[in-house]
Amino acid sequence: MIRFVIIALIVLAAWVLALNTIRLFRGSKIDWTGIAFMVGFVVLAFYLRHATGMGG
Predict the structure, then answer these.
(1) Which regions span the lipid bilayer (predicted)?
(2) What is the pTM of this model?
(3) Reduced to 3 states, what is the DSSP secondary structure of residue 29?
(4) For residue 27, what pLDDT is reported?
């Protein structure tokens, strides 16, 4: 039961963070190139970790 409460709190925190992030993005100019590079870098890191078995 405690596990469900902890998971529910984590989901709630993620939801609030997502809403605040969306609200912030709507009100400002965003450098989408930088965000795309950052996301691509993280995805590439996870892929290379999976493909080579190195890291972590």
Answers:
(1) 30-48
(2) 0.47
(3) coil
(4) 76
Extract the tokens encoding 10: 């984590």
Spatial CB neighbours of 48, under 8 Å, sequence gap ≥ 6: 54, 55
CA distance 16 to 25: 14
Contact between residue 26 and residue 19 where contact means Cβ atoms under 8 Å apart: no
Question: What single-letter DSSP state applies at residue 22?
Answer: H
Q: DSSP letter at 27? A: T
Mean pLDDT of successive 10-residue stretches along the chain, which has 56 residues? 91 94 80 89 93 79
In the chain, % helix, strand, coil (3-state, to 5) comes to: 80, 0, 20
